[in-house]
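Q: Okay, next protein. This is GntR family transcriptional regulator/MocR family aminotransferase from Metabacillus niabensis. I've checked the sequence twice, so it should be correct. Can you predict the 3D structure?
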Amino acid sequence: MELTPMIDKSSFEPIYLQIYNYIQEEIIAGRIEADSKLPSIRRLAQYLNISRTPVALAYDQLLAEGYIKSKPRSGYFAENVESIARSNYNLKQNKVSPTGNYSPIHHFYHSYQNDAIKYDFGYGTIDLHHFPLAKWRKFMNRSLLPENSFHLLYGDIQGEIGLRKEIASYLHQNRGVRCSPDQIVIGAGTFHSLDLLFQLIQNRTTSIAVESSVHVGVKALLNKFPFQVEPLDLELDGINLNKLKKKEVQAIYLTPSYQFPYGMTLSINKRIKLLKYATENQFYIIENDYDGEFRYNNRPIPSLQSLDNNGRVIYLGTFSKSLTPSFRISYLVLPTDLLCLFHLGKHSYDQHASPIFQKTLQWFMESGDFERHMRKMRTLYQKKHAIITSRFSDIFEDKIEIVGAGAGLHIVIKVKNDMDELKLIDTAKQFGVNVYPTSIYKIENHQEQDNILLLGFGGLSETAIEEGLRLLKIAWFPNNP
Ligand SMILES: Cc1ncc(COP(=O)(O)O)c(C=O)c1O
């Protein structure tokens, strides 16, 4: 079959969109019959005298929306429009997705109602006493003035352009990220953004490599999408790249600045090697830089995205640590090919981050208040980090090893007594202290129990940290006061 869409190179409508629209209309109108074979990407590109990229993008989107199907070694075929309608209906019926290994023992959930807990080393918390309430209120009030009431309506699906501009400039200055505001897509939290990203790449992704331990939110998403998951071992300087070389993957997910949960940093050598493999093998690197702003003992490490010259890195960030988790604002920085896919399908995604909060955040950033807040919080968290690490060494000496520290809002410790993870958590609880497991983050469920724990320090005062550690000493080493 030959296809002859009218390609207008002078049009504002991108070429891939013109091809996509044409084929979609032809299928719906029945002029391309169900099960008929479409020309290959190479052939159509040659025939239209254009590069393969726009044709591939158009086919990708048609595949994603179910207008065409791909048969291994045979090519692309038109779907039956009635079955498209039926499958859309089925999808709607089947909305609740399995959550897989999602564990209810989740460090995010602060034990608000539990009076018996005096000190909670919960990880999802931030320092509430230093939140700039008055400044935030000023901008929030502005967003509710009558002249701004249009922010009560739906916002731009990609996110408010003013906020995207602020984020692009902030990322450039603080994380070395090179991007234009057009590449940014605002979401309602890291896992909402990751979900959107997985939707974008799912048709071109069979296998995805991931760190051998990842956040439970990432685990839940890996279960939801039909990816083959390839866990990579973690070493002191980040993922084991030798294993990656042996695997054929289309994407890799990682937290290079401060591995979650264990806290190692991907070394510069490994960063360069990883970018090289990604370029040679054309896979994406999904960089979750969830707390890359906070680094205490040395200079902030530039993001992987800042070293990438070939559009392989997809950068993912959040305001949950730098400001507060409650506003639910995260962002994706997409390379241009994925941006095209996003625009093609954007009406089937949804903008979940409230336009009012986005606008307020934009003004907060424009005023310089965000930068000032970050400077203050860096100093504050640095102090808390110094206290928790030094007090652990003083109080516990060699009975505890600090496995991960130096950045972010949590540390990871290995307790050297005969208790396993659950026992350590339970015993601490009996003494009024909450500490958290790390085994729930493992991709592969090992039978053996660890004695490695995660302790957040962002939400605790310096005195509370000190007191909490004293109680832990009594709980875990009762014979060594
Ligand atoms: C690895 C990782 N990514 C992202 C986040 C933040 O998620 P969100 O943006 O949904 O608050 C966290 C936790 O705070 C995390 O541990």
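A: Here is a summary of the prediction. The first strand starts at residue 68 and ends at 71. Residues 275 and 308 are 7 Å apart (CA to CA).
Q: Noted. On to the next one.
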